[in-house]
Known about the structure:
Shape: globular
Distance between the termini: 37 Å
Family: Belongs to the bacterial solute-binding protein SsuA/TauA family.
CATH topology of the largest domain: D-Maltodextrin-Binding Protein, domain 2
Strand order of the largest sheet: 2-1-3-10-4
Keywords: Signal
Helix content: 40-55%
Number of strands: 10
Order of helices and strands: HEHHEHEHEEEHEHEHEHEHHHHHH
Number of domains: 2
CATH architecture of the largest domain: 3-Layer(aba) Sandwich
CATH class of the largest domain: Alpha Beta
Structural class: alpha/beta
Radius of gyration: 21 Å
Mean pLDDT: 92
Protein name: ABC transporter substrate-binding protein
Largest sheet: 5 strands, mixed
Subcellular location: Periplasm
Organism: Ramlibacter albus
Low-confidence stretches: 1-28
Amino acid sequence: xxxxxxxxxxFTTAALCGAAVLGVPIVRAQAKLEKxxxxxxxxxxxxxxxxxxxxxxxxxxxxxxxxxxxxxxxxGGARSLQALVGGSADxxxxxxxxxxxxxxxxxxxxxxxxxxxxxxxxxxxSPKAVPNYKGVADLRxxxxxxxxxxxxxxxxxxxxxxxxxxxxxxxxxxGVGTSAGALTALRSGxxxxxxxxxxxxxxxxxxxxxxxxxxxxxxxxxxxxFGGPMPAACLYTHAEFVQKNPNTCQALANAIxxxxxWLQTAGxxxxxxxxxxxxxxxxxxxxxxxxxxxxxxxxxxxxxxEEGAKTALRALASFEPSVKADKIELSKTYxxxxxxxxxxxxxx
Length: 348
């Protein structure tokens, strides 16, 4: 018994030394987490955009990884980014393009695991507010609802408008959130059009409250809008946090990929049983209709495609003067190391 124990120890030591010589990151089976209590910020947690986060939370996957994650929900992604920059959040569940935007301001944040492989954002016009709508140019001078100014919904609206020659300052952006407040804002005439996520947009669409003019809720629609794959929701944090807390980042990625794996085979009834009742916005059937519409937009394995990062940079640079494509180092905006290990662990 003693000899076998020594043999195991000798083998383990030799393996670790070999890994060190090769420069391969060492991942121990029960690696000690540098930080177990995590403050996580998200903008609009009840949206399908962040469904993998909710699933991993509700099913206890963060706890399984030894993490105590406290989630703060903000009105939109720009607000959750502010929480990270201000120091009140360790990690953000938010849009990947924020990593590019922030690098253009000399602040380095990095995606550690991907949750969405399409933005799931639809842009619609209110037939009541703009009854004679003929094209995007008709939105000049109008009020456009977004989850929060500066969020990914704002980015998609900017992209769509810019292609019709409309600049961001040619319209008024109004933050309306991602739930009941967004429905009310459009139906009451506070805004003329809206760029938002599901289930809100499907609910408005099915009731005839919006006419969809741009749609990234499917992979096909995303390709039509962006010209390529467009990564969406991810977990991101300061590059310095990643360097100092690799085991914690691995645990976060593991929890998310575990959730993604569960979602691959989950049926509508499984989703209904798992998410909080408030997510349904009072209409279970429409919630499920929304889920079916965006299902393929959910990431499969946590990995962010290199081509997707290039698409995001191209899109941002097309309408954001501060983003210079030749000045951005895309390799510093994301890492697939944690996603790769999580994918192997859960066979995602």
